[in-house]
Design a protein that fits this description.
- With 163 residues, this protein is of the alpha/beta class.
- It contains 5 helices and 5 strands; from the N terminus they run βαβαβαββαα.
- Helices cover 35% and strands 11% of the residues.
- It has a 5-stranded parallel β-sheet with strand order 3-2-1-4-5.
Length: 163
């Protein structure tokens, strides 16, 4: 089984996503369509790693937007996202290949991270990179540069309680 661990904010929405009422949980339909095509091409299943999973309203919003997920990562408020993903994987040994799509680096350096900019969300290029990775055509990931990731890791230390 192939799995994508999905963050939503900064991936399925971005700075350009229309949100005139400033709702906390919004999805860009164009980015969602791109993501759905990725799932169709790879046959991957989705596990939410987004903080949306920690709020009942966030989960309802994910269902409202029809984000196709099969499960959520465990919520460990004082742990980095990396540990939540590894905990889920340890309980699901049938996973043969996985990728993480997240605009932030919450100690995800040793995982196959595909990191869009929150300005653009999931791009066609990033989607193609995830597809190639999940299909086993490459082991290359697509990350922000080292300085950006270092800053994100430092920031994550101060906002550990994600729920």
């Amino acid at each position: 089984m192939k799995v994508i661990f999905l963050d939503i904010d900064g991936v399925l929405n971005c700075e350009k996503t229309r949100n005139p009422r400033k709702f906390p949980y919004v999805v860009d339909k164009k980015l969602l369509a791109r993501f759905e095509k990725l799932l169709d091409r790879t046959g991957a299943k989705v596990v939410l790693s987004s903080t949306w999973r920690c709020d009942p309203v966030g989960l309802l919003a994910a269902k409202y937007w029809r984000i196709p997920f099969i499960d959520v990562c465990p919520d460990r408020p004082r742990s980095p996202r990396r540990n939540e993903i590894l905990a889920w994987l340890s309980d699901h040994p049938r996973v043969t290949r996985f990728a993480v799509i997240d605009d932030e680096d919450d100690e995800l350096d040793d995982l196959p991270l595909f990191q869009p900019s929150s300005k653009t969300g999931l791009t066609a290029q990033l989607s193609k990179g995830v597809e190639r990775y999940l299909e086993g055509d490459t082991d290359e990931t697509m990350r922000a540069n080292f300085v950006v990731r270092l800053e994100q890791n430092i920031q994550s230390l101060f906002k550990r309680n994600k729920s």
